[in-house]
Amino acid sequence: MSLEPGQSLLHYRIVDKLGEGGMGEVFRAEDTKLGREVAIKVLPAEMAEDSERLERFGREARSLAALDHPNIVPVHSVEESGGKHLLVMGLIEGSTLDELIPERGMPLEQLLDTAIPIADALVAAHAKGITHRDLKPSNVMVGGDGRVRVLDFGLAKLVEQTNDPELTQLHTQALTEQGVVMGTVPYMSPEQVEGKPVDPRTDIFSIGVLLYEMATGNRPFEGDSQPALMSSILKDTPPPITSRRDELPRHLDRVVQRCLEKDPDQRLQTARDLLNELTGLRDELRSGPVLETPEQVSRRPPTVRRLWVLGGLAVVAVAAILILVFGVGDRRREAGTGGAVSLQSLAVLPLENLSAEPEQEYFADGMTDTLITELAKIEALKVISRTSSMQYKDTVKSLPQIGGELGVEGIIEGTVLRSGDRIRVTAQLIDVDSDRHLWADSYERPMDDVFALYSEVARAIAREVQIAVTPDDEVRLAVERPVDPEAYDALLRGRQLIQRGMTEKGLEFVRQATEIDPEYAAAWAQLAGLYEGLAISDPVWLPEARAAAHRALELAPDLAEGHAVVGSIAFYHDWDWETARRELERAMELNPGLADAYQAYGDYLEVLGRWPESIAIGKRSVEVDPISANLRMNLGLTYNMAGESEEALAACESALELNSQSSWAWYCIADAYHHMGALEDALAAAEQGFQLDREVPVIQVILARQLAAIGRQDEAQEILGGLEAEVQSRNVSPFYLAWIHTHLGNRDEALIYLDQAVTSHAAYTPWINNSPDFDSLRDDPRFEDLLRRMNLAK
């Protein structure tokens, strides 16, 4: 029989009933001895009749009473009166968590301010050997003072020890208002659902469910019935919280996913790990530079003031990644990391923009580039290039899956926050095999000190993964002069536009960076690279490319990107093979991870017929940039020229797998089949490429070649006529026309066009030195003269 208001048990007078459930009824009561109100939980009669369980309950209760923590509802005593067994606890006036979660989830700061005390309470309980086992919103109270407190630690263990289904399936009333809420099942861990032994990691899963619900307003696992719900817990992977609320940070999404791993070994292993993750994220959001008043901003120098307007909150973000990675000032190491580990390969995932301004994405992406560039300067460390890393922006893939696809042992992820002329960067190192957090740190610096910051970050990561930084590495990591913040901002904007295919607009921003800071070597090197790329189809840009590259190396003689552009100009445009070799090798020496230098050097070796070296460089470029379809295609073409058609086909097909819409990948496949003698297959592949992109001249050329190869000369001639008619308007290279004429058997016309190609230094002409496509011309003295004019005579 339930207790009634006014009834007394010992010196406790019942005031009213607060709730009931499988672990008993809960009453508000007055402690007449001490003059205070308390909460009394009365154990169910079925439990009270079991002497063994009562003894166990007493032991559990004594352990609970030892949990003296501000975020745990205190247990005052265990009592017995008239055959009723009581647990006397502190009474909390307030609301349960389920009453406070809005339909779309909590604001991020409120979520963290609520979740961190819960995690802190778990840390204290687990340290005492107590697992909650029934963590759910109705067991979390937020008092009128705003303090978060957790109820009912350890009591679920008593319910688990009964076979009475009524005790395990009872609903629990909210403690502050009438009505019922769902009981334990939605928050159970998979091991609880399966009836397996549990340990503190079951609480990690349950708090993951709480975090998901607090973030989105929805539970991660759903079902129309209890069996369906239990099946969902065991089998389903909930959608990322960022798919429901895209403004939430990806870092929080990853924490929630780690909590909700089905296998306890794959979860965050301790409540301390979880607490550190949550407090670290809150610190990133809160502890940025203090925002200035409009009056303070107005007193800033003009350049810095303009950067403030452009940057907004972005500065705070960059500092966060660097702090996690480096450790200026307050270095913190996550509990249980076990010290440094030996890793030989890393990928840097796109840094997350913590600014409230989505347009600041360009800044976070640019900071990702900068960190990758610095790490790639360490010769013994394989660092995945930006092209492949950026494929994982906003991904929902797990870190072990990403690591497997990129072929790396460790992953760096982090956040960037920018505010005015300061940046905060946080970064953390994750071991791919164990998905274990190894180390994290943060930095905050002025914008003009950004390169020093990242150089320090690179050294810190090297120390953490036990890679020795050699004297040569130190030279490569030497800090550049301070950079003008506005110039750096313009460069990053330009790079993002270029990477999105908006070259003309991007060029304007890069040029602006050199005008703002005429001594900014990296901006001059970027500008030189842009001009050099444009010069491939229009030589008018070549003088601009030379001047910008010269200026870059004048300002920074050891700038790898500057040497790479000089080498590319010497190779692709001047046919100065010795200068090309020297400059490209120097670029790779200064930055062992510079993908552009690898590609140009591989082409250089290919033109000279140094096949084993060219293939090795091609493989290295794929290792550095494993998700680049273009690099795999280039490797396939190198295999073809080396006579290794089977390997060529495999490389070309892997390029197509990475980009099914790549007409160039189909060109590569057609080339492989052609050299294998499978002419019908080659034609089919060429037609596939043509269907994808009818306007690219080289795709038309390869189709014409395959048509001519199987005797359909009229159709090949039709393609040739169309290209010849558009030589001027489309900048069709005479090299392409010579290629088709060669396969049509038009020797004289082919040599005439090749003469034009050599005279104009047309793109790709040096490849005639070793390409089997031109073997039919090699016995002609005119062909030998062409090679001599290109400095390629045997």
Structure description:
With 794 residues, the chain is α+β, with helices and mostly antiparallel strands. Among the domains are: 94-281, Transferase(Phosphotransferase) domain 1 (Transferase(Phosphotransferase), domain 1, Orthogonal Bundle), CATH 1.10.510; 287-483, TolB, N-terminal domain (Rossmann fold, 3-Layer(aba) Sandwich), CATH 3.40.50.10070; 519-622, Alpha Horseshoe (Serine Threonine Protein Phosphatase 5, Tetratricopeptide repeat). It has 37 helices and 17 strands. The strands form 4 sheets. The chain has a 6-stranded antiparallel sheet, covered by helices on one side. Strands 12, 13, 14, 15, 16 and 17 form a 6-stranded mixed sheet that branches. Helix 15 packs across helix 20 and helix 31 packs antiparallel against helix 32. The radius of gyration is 34 Å and the shape is elongated. Residues 158-183 and 288-339 have low confidence and may be disordered.
Tell me the fraction of residues in β-strands, as a range: 5-15%
CATH fold assignment of the domain at 287-483:
Rossmann fold
Strand order of the largest sheet: 1-2-3-4-6-5
CATH class of the domain at 287-483: Alpha Beta
Overall outline: elongated
Number of strands: 17
Unreliable stretches (pLDDT < 50, length at least 5) are: 158-183, 288-339
Helicity, in percent?
A: 40-55%
DSSP summary: helix tally: 37
| SS-based class | alpha+beta
CA distance, first residue to last residue = 106 Å
Overview features:
alpha+beta, 794 residues, Transferase(Phosphotransferase), domain 1, Rossmann fold, Serine Threonine Protein Phosphatase 5, Tetratricopeptide repeat, six-stranded antiparallel β-sheet, six-stranded mixed β-sheet, 37 helices
